[in-house]
Write a structure and sequence with these properties.
Length: 341
Amino acid sequence: MKKRVRKYRYRKKGRRSIARRHAVILTAAAVVLVLLTVAVVSSILLFQHKPEALTPSSPPQVLSQPVPEPASQLVNPNAASAAAQGELAYQSLYPELYVPIVEKIPAKEGDRVVYLTYDDGPSELTPKLLDILDEQGVKATFFVMAQGKSTENCKTWLKMIADRGHTIGVHTYTHQYQQIYASPQAFLEDFKKMHDLIYEATGQKITVFRFAGGSVNAYNQKTCKAIIDEMTRRGYTYFDWNVDCGDSNVKNKGKDIYAITIGAIKNYDKSIVLMHNSKSKSDTVTQTAAIIKEAKKNGYRFDVLSPSVKPFTFRIPSPPAPQVSSQASSTASAPSSSTGS
């Protein structure tokens, strides 16, 4: 009986020992499984947050890079100093009307080039003119105004000009000579209106312009120098012309416009041709293709105006010498005793 009891006890202890070993093994396996799980999760997280390798197509980002100033401010120091000068009140007006100052490059010797320029547009004739220029593979420069047309039509035509790859410049908003040439401030006011209309229609900031009536005319003798100086200080480039197609003379018809233009072009290697694109200048439009063909036949190429093109400009008149009477002259040379000298 005692032997059976001992045998039973030994068996029971053996079973307990085996159970403990199994528990240890299961616990160890669970720990290993947890460690493996942690390792896998950590690897996944590290992989997801691994920084991208730097390649030529993905340069490093600089988070603290300062925002650069507009280009016009950097290359035209007059913009920053305008407010500080204080000498002329109009110099501090319209701080947005500054553009880069660009070096003017003369035409190369032997380069025969024609610049077709159209004033007073856009108009109902503009779409047809653009089609003709496209057919001839030529780009032109349009000096535009707003007078005599609805704002919406004007914007539509301006966008057409820009979309076809031509250059747009300011001519005038009102074309009222006495108004715009009354003072530099009056000129700037008119200029800004047309400048803003062009920008609204095309998104382009213009850099070139042409004075209504030319840079020197009967209406701006007293103000032309101050206006030219101010617009040049702001970086804008203005263009007069050395060839006039003659379409401003109502007596000239299509054949006359052609003959005048071609005859004048042949006198120069470089021609800036004055033409018009107002609604009454249909003869100019119809002669454009023939003028281009004849000029090309004579070895000329066509281009658009830009700030780097050396412009033709009219000579600014010298201020008139003061008229002094003989009595005043003698007084100036020999002061009276009342001057206290």
